[in-house]
Amino acid sequence: QVQFEESGGGLVQPGGSLRLSCTASGITFSFYAVGWYRQAPGKQRELVARISRGGATNYADSVKGRTTISRDNAKNAVYLQMNSLKPEDTAVYYCNLQRPDVDYWGQGIQVTVSS
User: Fold this and answer.
1) What angle do CA 89, 58, 9 make, to 5 degrees?
2) How many CA atoms lie within 13 A of 26 on its CB side?
3) What is the pLDDT of residues 21-73, one digit of tens each?
């Protein structure tokens, strides 16, 4: 059974930073692309950042230049470092692992950017 443990969310002031972590179990993590998505109230879930099994990354335009995704295959973990946070970054953030036949999702973690 594939499970995820997400951590690092919370309340942060505009301009601040957060580092989200997601650790997977029950799957050979290194075989697959992993990423972070987010969903704000009343909006569709959207990709924030993704990293391939080989380490290639891509980012949503809205977070480019202030967000870094990384992975540690030895720890079955993926990280999202977010800097210069804005109120519009407020959302529930979800860890995602992509297999060819199915996507796996974490339970989600709240990030709130507010003064």
Assistant:
1) 35
2) 7
3) 999 999 988 899 999 999 999 999 999 999 999 999 999 999 999 999 999 99
